Amino acid sequence: MRLRSCLAGLALLLCGGAAQAAEECPAKSTAMEDVIAVLSAAPGCNRAMQLFEACAYGASGDVQFGDVVEKKCEADFGGRMKPPQTLSYQRELKACDRKYRDKSGTMYLSAAAFCRAKVAQRYSQRALKAGEAGR
User: Structure pTM?
Assistant: First the structure.
């Protein structure tokens, strides 16, 4: 009986989370230029990442979208990291590339782009948090 209740609760939680995460891409069309424009216009790293998730192709086109998100996030910490932090950041980006390097198919290019964007987002969040703590 407990197991059934737990499974039912888990199912509700997962369904609610999926409905919440299903944002539609606000770009005028699915053309790459339109999606890049929406990502570039995002007010910050976290919003750019949300839009990237909503507008993703799930294929090689996501590489360009991921680049926009990386640059948006890097604006929050780029140039302000100490050399060891910069090395760590570069190492994490390379780990994303290595993880999917030997995989076949364009979906793995997308996965690598998301991995890199998430790394940049994490570093952005840390930098912004450190900036708030310093005030």
Answer: 0.81
